[in-house]
Amino acid sequence: MKKYTVELLGTFFFVLSIIAALYNLTLLTPLYIGISLATLVYMGGAISGAHYNPAVTFGLFLNKKIGSHDALWYVVSQLIGATLAFLVATKWLHLTLPAFNIPVNLQSFFIAELLYTFALVIVIYTTAVNRLTAGNSYFGIAIGAIVTVGALTVGKISGGFFNPAVLLGVGLFGITTKVVLALLAGQIIGAFGAAWVYRYVVGK
Asked: What pLDDT is recorded for position 101?
């Protein structure tokens, strides 16, 4: 239960930080989001592994780095955390976000989310899961940095989600179903690809 609590809290604060950063949108917003994730990864890494992302949980599950029971409850905890972040942001902090006004190009959405979800999951595998880098102190910085890079490079293409929980929390502000499905498909396939590549490169 402690692991699920950490996943809920970590996802809650990550999604809330993203909503607030987007509300106060500046050129530094991607950096704020990356720093937030890095900090929260260090907070929960020793307890739950600090996934805060159903795509990460799915990617690690594919190589049996997490069991099916834990994977299910991780995802449930993450989605609850994202929903609570939306409710706190809107009901208590009275934050609003502009409409998702990026020109609709479902192929671009799909490819952008696939590429950087792949990059995020493979970075997690190689810095936080790989036995060859076990015990390092830079994994949180690496994870936060790849999210920052992704937001800077494809943020204007897909929104730079790379995380179904973030997609839920921000999507509740109003994103069409077909866009959500394109983004989600990219994230899932990106996580699958990262798991396969890691298995091929590093092995069991």
From this structure: 61
Mind listing the pLDDT tens digit for each residue in 79-101? 999 999 999 999 999 999 876 66
pLDDT, position 97: 87
Across the chain, what does the average pLDDT equal?
A: 94
- Burial classification of residue 167, based on how many CB atoms lie within 10 Å of its CB (0-12 exposed, 13-18 middle, 19 or more buried): buried
Q: What residues contact residue 24 under an 8 Å CB cut-off, 6+ apart? A: none
- Token look-up 């994870």 returns 143
SS3 label, residue 45: coil
Q: For 172, phi and psi rounded to 5 degrees? A: -65, -15
CA distances (Å), origin 156, targets 76, 105, 106: 29, 12, 13
DSSP string for 121-134:
HHHHIIIII-GGGT
Residue pair 59/192 in contact (Cβ under 8 Å)? The answer is: yes
**How many C-beta atoms lie closer than 10 Å to residue 134's C-beta?**
9
- Confirm whether pTM is higher than 0.90: yes
Q: What would the two tokens of residue 63 be?
A: 């190589």
Closest alpha carbon to 77 in 91, 92, 57: 57
User: CB 71: neighbour CB atoms within 10 A?
Assistant: 18
Region of residue 50 (left: phi > 0; alpha: psi -120 to 50; beta: else):
left
Rounded to whole angstroms, how far apart are CA atoms 28 and 39?
17
Residue pair 139/41 in contact by the 8 Å Cβ criterion: yes
